[in-house]
Amino acid sequence: MEFIRPATVKDVSRIAEIIVTNYRVNFYPFFNNDSFYFGELNVMDMASEYMENHNLLKSCFVYDDGVVKGIVRVCGDECEKLYVEPQFQNQGIGAKLLEFAIQKLHVSYLWALEYNTRGIAFYKRNGFELTGEKMMEDDWIPLLKMRLTDK
Questions:
Q1: Could you tell me how many helices (H) and strands (E) the chain has, helices first?
Q2: φ, ψ for residue 69 (rounded to 5)?
Q3: Burial letters for 77-111: b for 16+ Cβ neighbours within 10 Å, e otherwise?
Q4: What is the largest CA-CA distance in the chain?
């Protein structure tokens, strides 16, 4: 698929920046945890995590049309992460990354933050449905399972 390629070591800082920015923009309003979102969560530590764990990098693909604008990370048939830089959202990049993950990497499910109604609506528009399963990540983050429907 055009503009989507495997992530490389050169992409690590950009991947980290996209993830951290999205966590702050999309999730901070629900949790209002200053010490986590503006202390523990930072680009340097996130980039180090990807540098030190090559499996994270190997499971990551980027949307790169000259600028890395989005990322998708897949483990098995689970979409673990899908983020687009906020300035580039609503341009179809997320849908292209998700379509790539489904078609090329055989993604069939994901976990979405329960409060992320915008994200859940995006996944529904792209062929996923809520399964009714719920889990708590880190004892305080409610996630809902979504599975790819048979189209």
A1: 7, 7
A2: -110, -15
A3: ebbbbbbbbeebbeeebbebbbbbbbeebebbebb
A4: 43
Which amino acid belongs to residue 108? S
Residues whose CB falls within 8 Å of the CB of residue 139, separated by 6 or more in sequence, listed in order: none
Task: Give the integer Cα–Cα distance in Å for 82 and 97.
Answer: 8
Q: Residue 66, class by beta-carbon neighbours within 10 Å (0-12 exposed, 13-18 middle, 19+ buried)? A: exposed
Residue 57 token pair: 């990098």
Alpha-carbon distance 54 to 58, whole Å? 6
Establish how many alpha carbons lie within 13 A of residue 120's alpha carbon, considering only the half-sphere containing its beta carbon: 15
pLDDT in tens, 10-57: 999 999 999 999 999 999 988 889 999 999 999 999 999 999 998 999
Kindly list the distances between the CA atom of residue 37 and the CA atoms of 30, 121, 137, in Å, as whole numbers in the listed order.
11, 24, 16
Q: pTM above the 0.90 mark?
A: yes
Q: How far, in Å, CA of 84 to CA of 72, rounded?
A: 9
Q: Name the helix (H) or strand (E) containing 143.
A: strand 141-148
